[in-house]
Specification:
Elements (H helix, E strand, L loop, with lengths): L1 E6 L3 H12 L4 E5 L5 H5 L2 H20 L17 H25 L3 E4 L2 E5 L2 E4 L2 E10 L3 E2 L11 E2 L1 H4 L8 E5 L3 H11 L4 E5 L11 H13 L3 E3 L11 E2 L2 E4 L2 E4 L2 E4 L4 E2 L10 E2 L2 E2 L12 E3 L10 H15 L13 E3 L4 E6 L2 H6 L4 E7 L4 H6 L5 E7 L5 E8 L2 H13 L4 H6 L9 H11 L6
Length: about 450
């Protein structure tokens, strides 16, 4: 008899399992594929590794002369996808091996196989029945498959980061930050890229200011965006290297399916409440079946690894009798675009909807010394604050290291800090993070360097 069985070993599942082992819960984790799930094996980690490779390629091939480096023959420089993949694979193996080590170190049983929930206290894995007091579902999500009868034309994200030949004309389907990231990745490899969004915009959960900035960036980089278009099949719309969409012909040698993801619903003899393709949970991440929880992508509350991990830790605390609530609005949203984007707290649209009396304070990276020296001065920090008390209500950042910088904003939000606190927080010079202090000054009175 286990205290806890966790199904799925991505960041939501394995973090919960390690913590459960640390606090003395007899725990098993079930995984039908690789330890680490999508994020470590074919999502977050390999994509970021490849993005760093193409950033370096861009810096050498496009910016070396600007940095005073001579003697580089730009015509001789090219990007080798397969060599980049070998580097990414090395990182993946190191990280997944580390997770497996930590699971075993903390007494977690690793069970390989496909799980089926039989009851609120039992799980079947390949004809082996396991009894447990509690269950956490952390099976993640995946993009709906595209109907396709053409070999090697459509690539699912799970298969993308492998050794292959990359053709010239790439079509990316999707509107999420992941889709934008992939479009930029191949664009920076000097490929022709078209992005297909099924909506009138991209990055739907981002503040419109950030969204519009990134749409402009894609246009500047000559990534064409086709809006309000859905591709569910390639039959009849693709012919000999050309996609025909509403009479528009698009050069296409490869389609990458990064469409909006839906929950991976595992087999079960129980009736969970499913809404819009996700397992519904309450404020404590408990499903409609008592004693069974769902964390991470599978519950649809937020599609980010760190939020899945936070939910998993929250459930373990609850099982150990620690009461509390997890306010997802106080957790950052990261977008690994180029430049990176991140936000936390309220968007300006929501402040308007709820009738807040607020102020917008913005400071550009172009006025920051460190950003200038690095040659990465695209972007801004933007603070939304309450006019009455000066409390920080939301922060948006577009900057090369926005996904790191947002954690400072997370501390401000968590502590209910004001713009006066930000203005009085001395930042070391020269650093890009000084833009926070400047934006704080802008909110209180006027920025120093603006």
């Amino acid at each position: 008899m286990y205290d806890l069985i966790i199904i799925g070993s991505g960041p939501a599942g394995y973090v919960a399992a390690i913590r459960a082992g640390q606090v003395g819960l007899k725990t098993a984790i079930i995984e039908k594929n690789q330890i680490g799930g999508m994020c470590l094996n074919w999502g977050c980690i390999p994509s970021k590794a490849m993005m760093e490779s193409v950033k370096l390629y861009q810096k050498i091939s496009k910016d070396s002369a600007r940095f005073g480096i001579e003697g580089i023959d730009k015509k001789a420089i090219s990007f080798n996808w397969n060599k980049g993949i070998k580097r990414a694979d090395t990182i993946v193996k190191r990280l997944t091996g580390g997770v497996e080590f930590l699971l075993k170190k903390n007494g977690v049983d690793i069970i390989n196989g496909e799980a089926k929930i039989i009851s609120s206290n039992s799980v079947l894995v390949d004809n082996r029945l396991l009894e447990t007091k509690n269950i956490i579902i952390a099976t993640g999500s995946s993009s709906p498959k595209i109907d396709n009868d053409i070999d090697n034309l459509v690539v699912e994200p799970k298969k993308l980061f492998s050794e292959r030949e990359i053709p010239q004309n790439i079509v990316v389907i999707g509107k999420s930050p992941v889709a934008i990231e992939l479009a930029q990745l191949f664009n920076m490899m000097d490929k022709n890229v078209t992005l297909i969004s099924d909506s009138s915009h991209i990055m739907p959960k981002a503040d419109s200011y950030v969204r519009d900035y990134m749409a402009g960036k894609l246009k500047k980089d000559k990534i064409e965006i086709i809006y309000n278009t859905t591709i569910t099949t390639t039959k009849g719309i693709w012919n000999n290297g050309t996609l025909n969409l509403s009479g528009k012909e698009i050069a296409c040698d490869l389609i990458i399916n990064a469409a909006d993801r839906k929950a991976n619903i595992l087999p079960s003899d129980l009736d969970f409440v499913i809404q819009d393709g996700y397992i519904q949970v309450d404020e404590y991440f408990e499903t409609s079946v008592k004693g069974i929880y769902a964390v991470g992508d599978v519950n649809g509350t937020a599609m980010f690894a760190h939020i899945g991990s936070a939910q998993g830790l929250f459930v373990i605390n609850r099982l150990k009798g620690i009461e509390g609530k997890l306010d997802i609005s106080k957790l950052p949203m990261n977008m690994y675009t180029v430049p990176e984007a991140a936000q936390i707290g309220f968007t300006e649209e929501r402040l308007k909807e709820e009738g807040y009396d607020y102020k917008v304070s913005e400071f550009p990276l172009s006025a920051n010394g460190k950003a200038q020296t690095e040659g990465n001065a695209e972007g801004f920090v933007r603070i939304l604050s309450d006019n009455r008390l000066g409390e920080v209500l939301g922060v948006q950042i577009v900057a090369p290291n926005a996904t790191d910088m947002i954690n400072e904003a997370a501390a401000y939000i968590q502590l209910e800090s004001t713009v006066y606190d930000i203005a009085q927080t001395v930042h070391t010079h020269p650093t890009v993070s000084e833009v926070f202090m400047e934006a704080g000054f802008e909110a209180v009175d006027k920025a120093i360097h603006k």
